Amino acid sequence: MDKKFTKFSPFARIMKLSAIQFLIAGFFMTTTWAHVANGQEILDQRIHVKANSTSLKSALNYLERNSNVRFIYNPREIGVDQRVTLVGKSATLKEFLNELLSPLQIRYEVSGKQIALFKKLATSTNASDEASSSTL
Question: Is the dihedral of CA 63, 69, 75, 77 positive or negative?
């Protein structure tokens, strides 16, 4: 029984492996194709606000009604009874949120048509705290 074994040249073997890798890479590239994110468009809405001094909760309710968004927050963490002043002007929702929430040390994250509010984390400037945390 005389069998003939065909040997592939090293070049042909490399080409065969490369073709398989390109097919696998192409499959994953097409399944993970990026889509347009719509979350940040909400912050670009223009809103007209009349000047008044009110509670944070009332200000957020006003922005919800006029911008078609929903605010999500923990009232005990945020302190919704704080007094804030809305300056009468026409601006984007992002400008209003930055102006309203930054002095109160509140940050926000956008997810779809919902805006989650969180208390900003306190940063330590004490050198002994930094030194003790770096030794752990």
Answer: negative
Largest pairwise CA distance in the chain? 99
State pTM to two decimals. 0.59
Going by pLDDT thresholds of 50, 70 and 90, the confidence category of residue 35 is low
25 sits in the region (left: phi over 0; alpha: psi -120 to 50; else beta) called alpha
Q: How far apart are CA 136 and CA 55, in angstroms?
A: 42
How far apart (Å, rounded) are the C-alpha atoms in residues 106 and 56?
11
Query: Which pLDDT does position 126 carry in this prediction?
Result: 45
Looking at beta carbons, which pairs linking 68-72 to residues 24 or more positions away fall under 8 Å?
Answer: 68/113, 69/42, 69/93, 69/113, 69/114, 69/115, 70/113, 70/114, 70/115, 71/114, 71/115, 71/116, 71/117, 72/114, 72/115, 72/116, 72/117
What is the per-residue pLDDT across 86-101, written as a single tens digit (0 to 9) for each? 777 888 899 989 988 9
